[in-house]
Amino acid sequence: MYAYAIQAQMLTDFPRLSDIHPFYSDLCNTLYDRDHYKLALGQINTAKTLVDAVARDMIRMVKYGDSLYRCKCLKRAALGRMCTILKRQKASLSYLEEVRKHMSRLPALDPNTRTLLMCGLPNVGKSSFMNKITRANVDVQPYAFTTKSLFVGHTDYKYLRWQVIDTPGILDHSLEERNTIEMQAITALAHLTCSVLYFMDISEQCGYTIEQQCNLFRSIAPLFANKQLVVVINKIDQQPWDTLESERKKMIEDLVKESGSNTTMLTMSNVSEEGVSAVKNTACDKLLASRVDSRVSGNKVDSVMNRLQVVYPTARDGITREACIPDSVLREREREMTKTRKSRIGYAPTVEDDNIPSESEDEVMDSAAATESGRKKTARELMWENGGPGVWAPDYREQYDLADPEWRFDAIPQILDGKNIADYVDPDIEAKLLLLEEEEQQLQAEYDAANMESMDDDASLNEMEKAAVTEIRDRIKITRKYKERPGGNNRPVLPREVRGRAKDKHDIDAKLDGNAIEKRMEKYGVDASKMVERGRKREREGPRERRRKESAAADREMEHGDEEMTDISGLSKGAAKRAKKERDQSVKREKSLARSHSRPREPSQMGLKDENMAKVAKKVESQGQMRWHGGKGEGDHTKSVHLVKWMNTGKKRNGTHYCR
Question: What is the 3-state secondary structure (H, E, C) of 526-546?
Answer without folding.
Answer: CCCHHHHHHHHHHHHCCHHHH
